[in-house]
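User: Structure tokens for this complex, please. No commentary.
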Amino acid sequence: MIQLFNVFKSYGGVSPALDGVTLTIHKGDFVYLTGPSGAGKTTLLKILFRRERLDRGQVLVHGFNVGKLDDSRLYQLRRKIGVVFQDYKLLPRKTVFQNVAFAQEVIGVDRKTVKAHTWQALKEVGLTQKRNAYPPELSGGEQQRVAIARALVNRPSILLADEPTGNLDPAMAAEILALFEQANRNGVTVVLATHNQELLRAGRYPVITLNRGRVVES
Amino acid sequence: MRALFQFLNNVLGATAHNLKANRQVFLVSVATITVALSILGLFLLVFSNLKSMMSTWDRQVQLIVYLDDDVSEDQKSKLRALFEGHPEVEEVAFTSREEAWENFRHSFSGGADFIQDLDFNPLPGSFHMRFKSSPDRLDKIKDFAQVLNKQPGVESLEYGEKWVARFEKFMIFIQVFLLAVGGLLCLGLILIISNTIKLSYYSRQDEIELMRLIGATNRYIRTPFLLEGVCVGFFGAVASLALLKAMHYYIQLRFQESLDFLTRGVVIQFLPFSWSVSMVVVSMAVGLMGSYYSIHQFLESGDRQ
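Assistant:
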């Protein structure tokens, strides 16, 4: 499902962001990606959905050779991947419902299906009551749940999340984690970048640890 | 088919949303284009009227053959036969020396005394010929004049060739001038519209970035912006035509009479319909080019990331 071989990425600094990363994540896995700030977690996630280009190496995601993927086919890769961004990337002038529906509209899903799927996604994250609210009116946890609903609404094969519990209290973090676990039970491969020691200590899922762009533990 | 309908529905919705969200920028762009196209349209208006005046004058062009004072009756008959035998000659009229002198004295009846007191007739007899209407009438007159020049009994010829040629040159200059001004204005409009689209893009940058990350195709992202550019071009052209029509109405109302001596009864016309349509089409094409130019740059730079 996800394979990286000797991946190298530099932003021109003293040390590279990723330095010879090699790893494999199988279909249906739930994996934590961890490491100190600047270890390369976000860069690695960004390379998986080609938000960043790699300098060297091979990346295979869901059958796509990411490094060699033509720009005109990039959308095909991205439709297989749901991403929960660290800053949520919700559109402030759209309602919760419109934010989730937006993800389907832009890939050409018909209006009737959009409505049904959006409702279902909001139900799964427990936000149907807030469907007409605007993101700035929501708490951090609620915004995170909208972002998860949006990432899952197109039924992706892979779900990438960058620090999804970073700003949340432990109770809320547990609730959010439960949503990822639910998605994983539905067959979605989950890669979750986190600093959250409580989640890691629970020891329920494999952990890939990065440091200075290298995999130090897997 | 259903997917296409869905696509159109979505992009039209996005275009309407863009226009609504950037109403002010849109209106300023339309106003700028209106002014720019009105300048071009004004030149076109003058040009089209000069052209129609030119064709009126052209219709009035006649070949005048002045005869030698000692031309014989036989030579005159031969010349008349030559004129009447020419397939392009529509009408031939003869003015004798006496008639010419009489007409001249009549025209200057209130004029200088020395004309009235002149005791000899200085004017020659002449043939006046009108030619059938055709686009190359002037060329035909020129050709025929060359033949006539060599005929016995012919003193000189006149068909206003100098001023017609001068006017033709002037019209060519106007055409080149219009082409240059039109080209420069189009370039300017492309930049203006490109800027409008850039502003529109910036105002929706987050949304577009998200669309790209979610997996929208470039075509889906690009189309609403292209339509926006086309709309700016369309409304700008229509508004400029309305402005030109109002100017035309005003000029006709206030100046038609005083311009009659110049136009010789030709009414000042508005732009021909085909020209008006062309202005709208060109403006829309310019809008499309301007928006394509800017959105292409953004999408290219986004893909390179």
